[in-house]
Amino acid sequence: MTGARRLRIAAVALIVAWFFLPGLKDWIPIWIPFLVYAALELNFLIGGLREPHVPATRGRIPQTADIDELGGEGWLEPMLVRIEGQDVWIPAGGKSDEEVQELIEQGRERLLQGEPAHSLWPQPPARVVPGRQRLLARLEGVAVLGALALVLFVLVPERDWDGVDDADQAATEAMLSFEAARIAGHAVADVHCDARGEAVGIVQHADGIAEVGGRNAYLTPDICYRLYRLRYKGDEGAFSQTARAIAVLAHEAWHLHGETDEGVTNCYGFQSGVALGRRLGLSEGTAARMMRQQLADNATYGRSAPEYLVPRECRDGGSLDLAPGSSRFP
Ligand SMILES: [Zn+2]
To answer: Are strands 86-91 and 208-211 parallel, antiparallel or unpaired?
Structure first.
């Protein structure tokens, strides 16, 4: 196998791994390995074009190089003979009848000693046409590159919220609005996926904005995209990203409900996030683990933004426990 082919197989394996190992997608944008591969392929192509071209002039009589390539003069006239009931090719070129008979006798002895017929006079390697093979190798690289580009940039164009078509965006916003209204206890809520709300009396965070006690909430496109993938594509995505997206939606919904205190809003949001996660397609266990992780992370994030730290009463059986009868929290 050539180095170029090994590289191609490795590149395809890496890009397939990118799709199936959740961690890779989060850390490496797909165009980076693609560009590296394209650059290497270009390098092979240019290297191939620069190789000195050997003129392929051929006379009628086989050249010495041809004969060597063929495995010796004998194979210029291979002869199929039957020895001890087996078909055997012998290199009969340039040999007299007596010499051929001698070869047959040798073959018979070696066959009787148990040697397999094909190893008596190993066939010469298949002739190769270097120029054509180089061209095929180059075309193979171009074909692999083209197939990867097609898959990455045509068949999988939906890599962020902007890549989701309008109808699906509208359906997602309607679905998120329904879920937010449910948590807020409102008849109607409007969740917008552009995070550009400039209404008065709203609270703002990195990933979402909501009118306290109002109707409008705004989420960043990344949060919407993650929830869209989960709900409509069954894609659970990276654990902490999906957990974060669910917690943000539930958090903003609690602001719509009328909660102003960020710590309390977080506490309620983590609890509502379990049922919300289930409705979006997660298993009960996964949804609960995600919200427990969000609660655990809260202690860390809370250090830099103390107002977001959940209060002491945010615990099983505490005054902020929305389901005091249950022993699970959140
Ligand atoms: Zn908030």
So the answer is: unpaired
Residues 23 and 152 in one domain: yes
- The answer to whether residues 152 and 297 belong to one domain is no
Closest CA to 71 of 88, 103, 93: 93
Distance 263 CA to ligand 1 centre (A): 8
Measured CA angle at 318 (ends 251, 244), to 5 deg: 25
Say whether both 101 and 230 belong to one domain: no
262 CA from centroid of ligand 1 (Å) = 5
Centroid of ligand 1 to alpha carbon of 196 (angstroms): 16
255 & 185 share domain: yes
Question: Widest CA span of the chain, in angstroms?
Answer: 109
Number of domains in the chain: 3
Task: Give the number of other CB atoms < 10 A from CB of residue 284.
Answer: 12
- Mean of the per-residue pLDDT values for the chain? 83
pLDDT digits (tens, 9 = 90+) for 187-221: 999 999 985 545 444 556 778 889 999 999 999 99
What is the whole-number distance in angstroms between the Cα of residue 329 and the centre of ligand 1? 21
Residue 288 CA to ligand 1 centre (angstroms): 21
CA of 25 to the centre of ligand 1 (A): 28
Average pLDDT over residues 299-321: 92
Same domain, 142 and 187: no
Q: How far is the CA of 289 from the centre of ligand 1 (A)?
A: 22
Residues 147 and 113 in one domain: no
Residue 16 C-alpha to ligand 1 middle, in angstroms? 39
